[in-house]
Amino acid sequence: MRIENRQHLAQCREDYRKALECQYKKVLICCGSGCVASGSMNVYSRMKELLHERGLRVDVELQHEGHEESVGLKRSGCLGFCQMGPLMRIEPMGLMYTKVSVDDCEEIIEKTILGDEIIDRLLYSEEGKSYIHQEDIPFYKKQLHVTLEHCGHINAESAEEYIAEGGYTALEKALFDMTPDEIISEISESGLRGRGGAGFPTGKKWAQVAAHKDAPVKYIVCNGDEGDPGAFMDCSIMEGDPHRMIEGMIIAGIATGSEEGYIYVRAEYPLAVERLKMAIADDEAHGLLGDNILGSGKNFRLRINRGAGAFVCGEGSALTASIEGGRGMPRTKPPRSVDHGLFDAPTSLNNVETFANVPTIIERGAAWYRSIGTETSPGTKAFALTGNIKHTGLIEVPMGTTLREIVFDIGGGVKNGKFKAVQIGGPSGGCLTEEHLDLPLDFESTKKIGAIIGSGGLVVMGDDTCMVEIARFFMNFTKKESCGKCATCREGIPKIQAILERITHGSGTIEDIDMLQELSSVVKTCSLCGLGKTATNPVLSTLKYFKDEYIAHVVDKKCPAGACRSLCTMWIDPLKCIGCTKCARNCPVGAITGELRKPHKIDPEKCIKCRECKNGCPKHAIKEV
Amino acid sequence: MVKVDFGFIDSVLQKYDCDKTRVIAIMQEIQNEYKFLPKDALKYVAEKVDESEAELYGVATFYENFSMNEKGKYIIKVCNGTACHVRKSDDVQEAIYAATGLTPEDHISSDGLFTIERVACLGACSLAPVCTVNGVVHASMTPEKAHALIQELREAESHED
Q1: Domains of chain A, each with CATH number or no CATH
Q2: Beta B136-138 vs B114-119: how paired, if at all?
Q3: Strand A347-351 versus strand A301-306 pairing type
Q4: CB-CB: which of A37, A83, A310 is closest to B63?
Q5: Alpha carbon of B94 to those of A466, B116, B118: distances in Å?
Q6: Which of A222, A258, A316, A552 could cross-link A263 (Cys pair, CB 3.0–4.6 Å)?
Q7: How many whole angstroms separate alpha carbon A417 and alpha carbon B23?
């Protein structure tokens, strides 16, 4: 149904709110990529089936009228604690159940939905303590959800619920109470900076696009090409609260005088594409997108472009080239995309999380936004916390939160072994070490030590991760992703990668380390786009903080972390070996000898380190040193 | 050899108004149907959108997702993003190669069943290491689970026959 004007929107919001209030229990099942992978869709279907079987009234969609007492069953966006998935949140109790399986559904309905009983077995527990409410769990305690406020709390596939929760209030304000200039100055005053990596002030960018008053067409482009391996914040926003991002884009359109928008989504995010398509269709039907939005006379149309798997397309000019249907190769700047962007028209290109911040700023004001975070980096930042850490998942914290708080308080510390480093900002970032644990994470502080916040990937590494090998891993990645335009990036990175390959195989020399330093600096200074300019950051930062490890590899021919296979020796622990002969039979080169029921031995001369012995050992007696 | 249904290609072209700037979306739909880009189809698209074949080939080969080679019934994507890498995705990958008998150079297994692709990040980092089989995510993989998975797919296949 089309919403004709502002009063009508208020009426609809009221109706939807009433419908929500009639839901005496709300069951939110996390349907973010992580939980879907652990089977949450099956849990959803099973719950629906069982509720129907019992003849209970179930609301999946909100209705305008005829509200009756019912159970609200919703597919929500990412709740963040992906590792404990599938997650289920039950309102109004604020309960969170973890690792819910299809077999638990019957009991949940019986005890928790019909009664108010809590099933202890499904609660999250840590160190002997069970947590009933999501907010009390240590993982959530230090977080502050702004862009993720709806994720896990509303139905991600319902425009109605978004409206009921106050969605599109900011759009209303932008359309009817503010001039475009006022919107831009509000955003400028809020100090919002691009969340895609560079941290460029959003208000300034919008003002530059708005300044092209005579341009026949201008574009708003959303960069959802979240290519950094180890990052999934934008994915979660697109999947979990698509309307919020769309609202931000419409407001950007009004502010800059643009009527056309594109969302460029990474190919690997099919669920995000599906939810966005659904959201756009819903908003068009509601008259929130398209012509004459809410009767204001303003228009904004939105289109989705799916990426096709090229990391470089996260770079602005490469992304627009890709939307135009060409090879996604960056070009020289200036001219910048605010002057000559998509189809050569003035274009404001912002990241998903940036757009998701906009509605809140317009609604609650710049001063409120500035009260969060630090002086130069206001607001919050979403991070994807992964790697060798106890609690993995999606988090959002105020800018300026220290690494220690994130890794130890929220993440619960390293899973195996001792904390060694955090890779921040993906392949363009650097590593932060023990000495940086008290560093406040914001744009300035990270830049000062040669890293970047980037899009927000935090990959935690313990002492079993080899930093030389990690540098090699990133070079291997960027080598494949270089578009080939600049010689330094195209030729330099493979050279660096080859040297790192050599070092991790034990044939590196001390001169190689100097060569790495020199080559990395050349690639950094002489490449055109962000990819080349930052590609060697992982090498430079590991060289800076872990030079000892490089030296151990080239001089002692040892890998201190025990991760580089060629530098490891396989060894059988005689105390654990039961002499079952399995390893000797598995060994393809006959390097293992020993009598039945007596400890076996590996001949290091013959061993090819294939690990067949280790993988098959029933007693885990085979070690690598 | 796959036989290209030009009626289908026409319907895709029509959907995108034969618009040169939408060739990526057009090729994505074609690949969706055939799992790769048949040469004849590309040639036909080039003609219809008034673009040179070479240009289109350039675009198709620039992007990782487009394939010019036929693929197996089961496309196994092994994630090698940072989070998966740190949690030893290399071992999982090795196990999958071993179980299927493929090598990194092969596009498709000789029985037409498997294609293995290494991808950088599937966005399920918190469940690392992961792999997907025709889009379905398999979480927290180990070499043992990988062997079992391939075995399972093979068995499902023999039941179908």
Answers
A1: 19-138 (3.40.30.10), 167-370 (3.40.50.11540), 380-462 (3.10.20.600), 467-556 (1.20.1440.230), 569-624 (3.30.70.20)
A2: unpaired
A3: unpaired
A4: A310
A5: 20, 11, 11
A6: A222
A7: 50
* Average model confidence (pLDDT) across chain A: 93
Which residues in A lie closer than 8 A to residue B127 (C-beta atoms)? 34, 37-38, 82-83, 85
- A326 has a chain B CB within 8 A of its CB: yes
Q: What mean pLDDT do residues A451-480 have?
A: 90
Contact A299, A291 (CB under 8 A): yes
Global pTM reads 0.90
Where do runs of H (alpha helix) occur along A60-192?
105-107, 138-141, 159-164, 169-176, 180-190
Interface test with A, best of B77, B121, B133 (most A CBs within 10 A): B121
Domains along chain B with CATH numbers:
6-62 (1.10.10), 74-160 (3.40.30.10)
What would the two tokens of residue A338 be?
Answer: 């605010």
Q: Is A484 on the interface with B (CB under 8 A)?
A: no
Integer CA distances (angstroms), A184 to A256, A263, A617, in order: 8, 21, 64
Backbone φ and ψ for A75, nearest 5 degrees, come out as -95, 110
State whether A37 and B119 contact (CB < 8 Å).
Answer: no
Query: Of the ranges A30-39, A55-64, A209-218, A391-400, which one carries the lowest mean pLDDT score?
Result: A55-64
Among A398, A77, A58, smallest CA distance to A241 is for A77
Which of A85, A309, A394 faces B63 most closely, judged by CB atoms? A309
Report CB contact under 8 Å: A306, B25: yes
What 3-state DSSP class applies to A388? coil
Distance CA(A495)–CA(A479), nearest Å, equals: 9
Of A383, A480, A377, the residue nearest A429 (C-alpha):
A383
What was the ipTM of the complex prediction?
Answer: 0.85
Helices marked H in A401-535 — which ranges? 403-404, 443-448, 467-481, 487, 493-504, 510-526, 530-535
Long-range contacts of B53-61 (CB under 8 A, 24+ apart): B56/B23, B58/A327, B59/A325, B59/A326, B59/A327, B59/B23, B59/B24, B59/B27, B60/B27
Q: In chain A, pLDDT over 70 holds for what percent of residues? A: 100
Select from A396, A327, A278, A288 the least CA-distant residue to A2.
A288
pLDDT in tens, A499-527: 999 999 999 999 999 999 999 999 999 99
Strand order, beta sheet including A393-398 = A393-398, A380-387, A457-462, A419-424, A430-433
Closest CA to A468 of A552, A531, A555: A552
Q: In what side-by-side order are the strands of the sheet with A95-97?
A: A58-59, A70-76, A23-30, A88-91, A95-97
Secondary structure letter of residue A384 according to DSSP: E
Mean pLDDT of all residues in A238-264: 97
